[in-house]
Amino acid sequence: MNWMNKKPSEISTVVIISKNHQHTQSVQIKTKHLNRIRHYVYSTLSVVVVLVGLVIYLRAENFRQEQEKQQLLAQIVKLKGAIPVASAQTKEGSAQSYIQAIEGKLKTINNYLKRRGLKGFSNKGIGGDDNAEGKKLTDKEVYSLYNDYLSRLMGTIAFTPMGYPRISSFTSFFGYRSDPFDDGRAEFHPGIDFKGRKGDEVKCTASGKVVFAGWSGGYGNCIRIAHINNLETVYGHLSKIKVRVGQEVNVGDEIGLVGSTGHSTGAHLHYEVRKNGKPINPVNFLTLNK
What is the pTM of this model? Predict the structure, then answer.
């Protein structure tokens, strides 16, 4: 209906004739579109040209980025080629890794000793004992064996009573002595006494677990700590207890303060080492030379 209402000049008829002139087909379109067909063609060509240009640009940009990627990969390979010499020396199982592990363990052991008031030691000057069998081993095998030995030693030192619960002189030794409360009677002293003032800190001599912390008759305020190999340390006459039963303690931890509680004539620390529940001479555990 719309086509019929328009003026004839606004409508043009396009006749399409087949090649053999047997069939014809006519199409009516607005005349203004025919007049603008040149502009339509130019617009379409412009869009095609822009798209083709964009494709060419993207391909060139992709090629450039690929070139840069290859250059970077070449540089990475070159840098990796320079690193392996240093990294191979420190990989696990190498001689250098054993040396580093040994130095670390010696540092830890020295720390354990110093926390007990003992002097540490150095690996300087260690040159072996000219053992014939030892000479058959490579440096790497020697380092490996030494590293294993230090691992065992480190574990033993940490959990075995060793050193001083406090740094001071002795006032009484292990064994029989005159009863300080009765000169006419001898008594067995199951530990050693360290000189001290009330409030001086008391440290545990090995890592372990607190099995008693409280009042214990003549020991006064007392702490007992269980260690490996059925060893136990006892700290008596304390003025204050700083641990509780069941607590895990590490060597060198402050566990209490010196006092004069219980059967005591003055401020000091009573220290015992027990094996299978029986007191043994603590002097044997004070240094590494016993």
Answer: 0.55
